[in-house]
Amino acid sequence: MWYDNERIVEEEGISRLLVGRTFAYFPKYVDGKNNSISSENKENLDSIDNITYDNKEYVLITQRLGRTIIPLNPELLAQSTFDQDIIDGYLNEIHKNVHNYSILTEYSFLMNEIPRNFYCLPQIDNLLIWDVFIMLYSTVYKNAKLKLQIRLSHNYPNTCPEVFFITPIFHPLVNIQTGKLNLGTSLSNWDPSCHYMSLIFLYIKNLFYLQEEYNKEIVENQEALFLLNNDKDEFIKNVQKYINQGNKKIYDHMENCMFNFNQKEEHIEIKDKLENIKTDQVCARKAEAFVHWLINEYSMENTNGDGNTTNGDENNISGDENNISGDENNINGDENNINGDENNINGDENNINGDENNINGDENNISGDENNISGDENNINGDENNISGDDNNINGDDNNINGDDNNINEDENNINEDENNKENIKRDETNEEYNQNDNINVEKYSMDNYINNVSTNE
After folding, report:
1. Is the N-terminal amide bond of 157 cis, ω within 30° of 0?
2. pTM of the model
3. What are the residue ranges of helices labelled H in 299-325?
4. What's the confidence (pLDDT) of residue 317?
5. CA 458 – CA 451 distance, rounded (Å)
6. What is the spatial distance between Cα 256 and Cα 249, in angstroms, rounded to a whole number?
7. CB-based contacts of 100: which residues, under 8 Å, 6+ apart?
8. Cα 250 off chain centre by
9. How confident is the chain (458 residues) per 10-residue block, as mean pLDDT?
10. What is the C-alpha separation between 65 and 62, in angstroms, rounded?
11. Which CATH superfamily is domain 113-248 in?
12. How many CB atoms lie within 10 A of CB 152?
């Protein structure tokens, strides 16, 4: 961003909105492609249509200079009417609001240039007052949470804005009584042709990086300057004292301020845990430790039986809510009566359901009796089947008896056969004895004959 440029007045007769030439320059190439300057264009660089910055080429969009953001009447833009009274009425309306539009234009460009951890909102009913909130994470003002106000005059941008610290701060350039910031010699001599609101925010950002020397003409707090130069430890103690006091008042309500905060009870525990983990020298993985505590301990402690987390807002009921008026009590009484009528209706419906259940019960009993009759008939049939089975068993027993008689007869026949076999065995044994005797006699006779023959031969 270049600030050594002039504001260009738009076309006369349409609006007097001032637009800086800087806002009309755009990069020649998109997304950083071909950022290097070509040799053929070096001759034409730094002309009215081309400028260089950080080795990048920017071109001037002439249409951007003549563009207005004020919603003008279409007839006026098309020049379809030449009635001077109508034209004067349109132009008067434009001139009446052009100052507000110029401030909004300044604010819209500021959003792209505001430093990190800086937040700014114009007040709803007054565009000339901008509320600012700052959170600091470094320098000796670390952990400070500051509220500021930037006040514009009706002649802006021809006059310099004023900056006030709503939150007290111990700094050489901030008045300890009024909170007004001294903007230095450069910004105090405000020049609308080269000074913008973004410069104010850059100045505030650099304010917290303390300098070794300050111009005595712009010093607002002589005590702070003396301690800074002679007793830095005491200076830091005073800085911390003001930071602690300011942080305790961060939840104090301010009328018309755009940054009013509410302190909720359930957030205090989380804040304290964050601070404890942050200062814990033993804990090496602080982020994981906090997430583990938040999920496994804090969530479980703040969850009721139904799994719904209790809200601190419900516990912190204000006195106004406890002081219920008589009208609200009457309304509650009417609601209770309505609920009673609904309960009676529900009771009647329950009685009807009970009668229907009784009818269903009687029908079930009838069905049960029919089932019992069918069961008795089945039992009779079963008894008849049993009788038939018994008859069959008797017949079977008779057959078994007959079979047993037959078996007895067969056994007697077998016994007779066994006796006959025994007699045959005896006969065989007798015959065998006879045969053996005959064989012995034959052998004896043969032996005698042999002996006789031998004797004869001798």
Report:
1. yes
2. 0.47
3. 299-301, 312-315, 319-322
4. 40
5. 11
6. 17
7. 127
8. 28
9. 41 41 48 49 50 60 48 57 69 71 82 88 90 92 94 87 94 93 89 85 91 86 92 94 91 86 74 85 85 81 51 44 48 56 59 58 58 58 59 60 64 68 70 62 57 55
10. 5
11. Ubiquitin Conjugating Enzyme (3.10.110.10)
12. 21
Closest to 25 (Cα-Cα) out of 45, 1, 54, 42: 1
Which residues lie below 8 Å from residue 193, measured CB to CB, with a gap of 6+? 5, 6, 7
Alpha helix segments (H runs only) across 285-325:
286-293, 299-301, 312-315, 319-322
- Assign 352 to helix, strand or coil: helix
Phi first, then psi: what are they for 142, rounded to 5°?
A: -60, 140
Q: What do you get for the CA distance between the two ends of the chain, in Å? A: 174
Coil, strand or helix at 101: helix
What is the Cα–Cα distance from 143 to 133, expressed in whole angstroms?
13
d(CA 381, CA 309): 69
Amino acid letter at 378? N
Residue 28 CA to its chain's centroid (Å): 42
DSSP 244-260: HHHHHTTT---TT-S--
Interatomic CA distance for residues 123 and 59, integer angstroms = 36
Distance of CA 246 to the CA centre of its chain: 33
Q: How many residues are given for the chain?
A: 458
What is the reported pLDDT for 106? 83
Quote the longest CA-to-CA distance of the chain: 202
The dihedrals phi and psi of 326, each to the nearest 5 degrees, come to -65, -35
The predicted structure's pLDDT at residue 63: 47
Angle in degrees, CA 303, 305, 310, rounded to 5: 35
CA distance 179 to 176: 6
Cβ neighbours around 22 below 10 Å, total: 18
Strands (E), 152-252: 162-165
Q: Which two tokens stand for residue 137?
A: 């994470």
Do 16 and 72 contact (CB within 8 A), yes or no?
A: no
Q: Which residues contact 120 (CB under 8 A, 6 or more apart)?
A: 107, 110, 114, 130, 131, 132, 133, 150, 201
Pairwise CA distance, residues 122 & 111, whole Å: 12
Q: In sequence order, what are the residues at sequence separation of 6 or more whose Cβ sits closer than 8 angstroms to the Cβ of residue 249?
A: 167
**Domains of the chain, residue spans:** 7-109, 113-248, 265-303
Q: Which helix (H) or strand (E) holds 423?
A: helix 326-457
Can you give the pLDDT at residue 382?
Answer: 59
